[in-house]
């Protein structure tokens, strides 16, 4: 059979985001896949070297459009580690709650993209609607819907508004009440099972070899979660589980995402119960215009909804970072794993595999 | 972690090992980078989190940084108390930067090395695909080096574009 070269994206209907894959196909089987990023390269890491430590916050949140919160968190954590600032306890709890809310929102967005891709339009509409409810919470808390710029070195920008906890519990209950419906229409649906089972399988050995993180790793049965390994914020204050699956295919990845979402909601309830009622939410930091951070370097990491998110940050003792480098989870997922997993699959499953791996283009390009 | 430190110090020359705040920092000569990475991989540090590069223009050197961490071997006996990040640093000269690829040890090193090749102009010998990754244009000075003047480039680049009538 004749071998053809096929350009999949960035204008392709089956592609989500500004990303492209060059496929070599024979019939509808993929022989070779070349990931082709760069459509969203904005040079943030270079730009950040020309701006002061505090000015960088509006930049970093744009690195991942879907969930800016964890990128804010990791940058704040990096600056804290370099300058030795401690976060007060209430600030830590608020950070955890905020990040778990972001995880729920981001997973709902991922569910929208995935179910839309497979043609489950109803589920996609529900997921988008529920994400909007989460965004409403963010709007009340931070004043913005997508890019919140809420975290800062030393804690968070301001305390919860009055009655916010009740509102959050109410919203999360109304989302959680829909889980049986999601199960009936999507997760336990025979059509979803047929499309996703055995597709894009990643064995444990390959996942380790190719540097998989996050839910892709947890879908192969390993309880690999940075929140457990290196607890940051308030994750060591409450009890919670790391949900895993065994098969490593798209089906297990999606179920791992669902379980993680449910676990996040439970975790938020526990965090609200345990949160100190009074106290500071932020340590005082120096004047941001004159803030100089002692020379040194640090590597910090956290668990974003896509997996391990890291930041290597270097200071030369000045008022600007000397070098920042983000280790984003989509980077190895999109450029290494996707290329290898796609070989042997059919063209119809490219988007299926890509979204089940949660590849987001802006995170790769930065 | 301390036993690992002793083991590393006994098997390599010209090495400085530091443990601070949950992280082990290793400074090593550039010729031993492949051997230390495979040594650490055999010790269980199988996850290459990041390869980064810092342009130390005052010292006329590039610093290449490898960050490793461990997946867990046994899912049950896992505690958050152990140190699990290792930062390995090595330096190469700034003019005619040449280095070797570590793709034989870590397969996911490929895009990181491609990115560093493109943004810093470091040539990784043995890398099968050092093609452009992100950038559209070719630059005389690779753009992430410190002597790349962003403002000057922008002024020149956008003045050269003819105005639309």
Can you describe what's shown?
Chain A has a single domain, classed as Cytochrome-c3 Hydrogenase, chain B (Orthogonal Bundle), CATH 1.10.645. In chain A, 47% of the residues lie in helices and 14% in strands. In chain A, the strands form three sheets. A three-stranded antiparallel beta sheet of chain A has the order 1-2-3. In chain A, strands 6-7-8 form a three-stranded antiparallel beta sheet. Chain A has 366 residues and is α+β, with helices and mostly antiparallel strands. In chain A, strand 6 (296-304) and strand 7 form a beta hairpin. The model of chain A has no long low-confidence stretch (mean pLDDT 87). By secondary structure, chain B is of the alpha/beta class. Chain B has one domain: NADH:ubiquinone oxidoreductase Nqo5 subunit (Beta Polymerase, domain 2, 2-Layer Sandwich), CATH 3.30.460.80. Chain B is built from four helices and seven strands. Chain B has helices at 2-11, 33-42, 109-120, 150-160, and strands spanning 15-20, 23-28, 47-56, 61-69, 85-93, 98-100, 123-125. In chain B, the strands form two sheets. Chain B has a five-stranded mixed beta sheet, covered by helices on one side. A two-stranded parallel sheet of chain B has the order 6-7. The longest helix of chain B is centred in the last third of the chain and has 12 residues, at 109-120. The model of chain B is unreliable at 74-81 (pLDDT under 50).
């Amino acid at each position: 059979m004749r071998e053809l070269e096929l350009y999949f994206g960035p204008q392709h209907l089956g592609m989500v985001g500004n990303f492209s894959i060059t496929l070599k196909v024979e019939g509808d089987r993929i022989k070779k896949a070349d990931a082709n990023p760069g459509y969203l390269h904005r040079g943030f890491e270079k730009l950040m070297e020309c701006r002061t430590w505090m000015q960088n916050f509006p930049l970093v949140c744009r690195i991942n459009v879907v969930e800016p919160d964890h990128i804010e968190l990791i940058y704040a954590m990096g600056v804290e580690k370099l300058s030795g600032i401690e976060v007060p306890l209430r600030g830590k709890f608020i950070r955890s709650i905020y990040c778990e809310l972001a995880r729920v929102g981001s997973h709902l967005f991922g569910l929208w993209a995935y179910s839309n891709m497979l043609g489950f339009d109803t589920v996609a509409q529900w997921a988008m609607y529920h994400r909007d409810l989460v965004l409403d919470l963010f709007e009340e808390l931070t004043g913005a819907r997508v890019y919140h710029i809420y975290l800062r070195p030393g804690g968070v920008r301001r305390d919860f508004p009055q009655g916010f906890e009740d509102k959050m519990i109410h919203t999360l209950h109304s989302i959680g009440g829909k889980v049986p419906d999601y199960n009936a229409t999507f997760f336990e649906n025979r059509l979803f099972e047929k499309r996703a089972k055995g597709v894009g399988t990643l064995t444990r050995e390959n996942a380790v070899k190719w540097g998989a993180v996050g839910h892709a790793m947890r879908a192969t049965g390993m309880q690999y979660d940075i929140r457990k390994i290196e607890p940051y914020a308030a994750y060591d204050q409450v009890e919670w589980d790391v949900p895993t699956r065994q098969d490593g295919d798209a089906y297990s990845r999606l179920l791992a995402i669902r379980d993680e979402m449910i676990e996040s909601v439970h975790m938020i309830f526990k965090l609200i119960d345990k949160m100190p009622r009074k106290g500071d939410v932020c340590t005082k930091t120096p004047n941001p215009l004159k803030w100089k951070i002692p020379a040194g370097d640090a590597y910090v990491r956290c668990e974003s909804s896509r997996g391990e998110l890291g930041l290597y940050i270097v200071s030369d003792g000045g008022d600007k970072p000397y070098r920042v480098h983000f280790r984003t989870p989509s980077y190895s997922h999109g450029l290494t794993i996707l290329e290898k997993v796609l070989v042997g699959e059919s063209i119809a499953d490219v988007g299926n595999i890509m979204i089940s791996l949660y590849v987001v283009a802006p995170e790769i390009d930065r | 972690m301390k036993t690992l430190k002793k083991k590393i110090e006994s098997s390599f020359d010209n090495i400085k090992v530091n443990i601070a705040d949950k992280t082990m920092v290793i400074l090593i000569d550039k010729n031993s980078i492949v051997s230390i990475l495979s040594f650490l991989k055999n010790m269980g540090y199988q996850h290459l989190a990041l390869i980064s590069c810092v342009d130390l223009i005052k010292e006329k050197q590039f610093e290449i940084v490898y960050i490793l961490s461990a997946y867990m071997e046994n899912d049950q006996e896992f505690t958050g108390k152990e140190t699990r990040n290792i930062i390995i640093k090595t330096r190469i000269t700034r003019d005619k930067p040449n280095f070797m690829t570590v793709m034989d040890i870590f397969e996911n090193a490929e895009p990181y090395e491609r990115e560093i090749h493109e943004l810093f102009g470091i040539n990784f010998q043995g890398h099968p695909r050092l093609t452009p990754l992100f950038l559209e244009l070719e630059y005389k000075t690779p753009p992430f080096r410190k002597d790349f003047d962003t403002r000057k480039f922008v002024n020149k680049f956008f003045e050269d574009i003819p105005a639309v009538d």
